[in-house]
Amino acid sequence: MSAMRVDAKVVMLGKESVGKTSLVERYVHHRFLVGPYQNTIGAAFVAKPIQVGEKVITLGIWDTAGSERYEAMSRIYYRGARAAIVCYGETHRKLPKFKVARSYCVLQHCKIYLCGTKNDLIEGDRSLRQIDYHDAQDFAEEIGAQHFETSSKTGSNVGEFHVAVFVPAEEPGVDLGQKKDSYFYSCCHNN
Ligand SMILES: Nc1nc2c(ncn2[C@@H]2O[C@H](COP(=O)(O)OP(=O)(O)OP(=O)(O)O)[C@@H](O)[C@H]2O)c(=O)[nH]1
């Protein structure tokens, strides 16, 4: 069996139950799974082939476990990543630790994205918001990250199938779709 070629590695990071697996499910399978929460053990990998112009490009997404007991392992998964998506729950208490997020940032060729999750809960009841948008925005600027607020339940800001494309720098002029403000779109682009 030949090994799968991955053109760009993306790694999902963040504390347990902030919604990393749900984001991947939404992005890759266009669904939101309901049912009891099951924590990721170690890490899960999913490949997503995407059409870019005439080419098919494969994104390799590593969904790492948020539990602190797996922290040492997670470092293995983000090595060589092109984009690190650091997630925090908008209804949870804490932003990711600066020190940890910053260490992702300095990885060679690795862009960092700060991704707020579960935005639908706040849309339903604003009092549930625990992380102020502007605080998160300031934090993102501090660590040199782009910031998005998303909902895997509604799909808001996650990026739909046709817009989540990866375009290498040497391939300008490819149709980038219409919605450029979603974070999966953004993290897979060079500009
Ligand atoms: N309402 C709502 N609930 C969400 C959303 N995303 C995730 N959840 C819920 O939050 C819980 C945790 O989601 P996961 O995606 O498993 O979280 P995780 O970050 O992968 O967790 P670990 O595997 O422990 O690292 C689950 O019960 C999800 O259904 C969202 O966008 N909206």
TrEMBL record:
GO molecular function terms listed in the Swiss-Prot or TrEMBL record: GTP binding; GTPase activity
Superkingdom, natural source: Eukaryota
Keyword set, alphabetical order: GTP-binding, Nucleotide-binding
Alphabetized InterPro entries for the sequence: P-loop_NTPase, Small_GTP-bd, Small_GTPase
Pfam families, per the entry: Ras
Cross-referenced NCBIfam families: small_GTP
Family that this chain belongs to: Belongs to the small GTPase superfamily. Rab family.
Name this polypeptide is given: RAB24, member RAS oncogene family
Originating organism: Acanthochromis polyacanthus (spiny chromis)
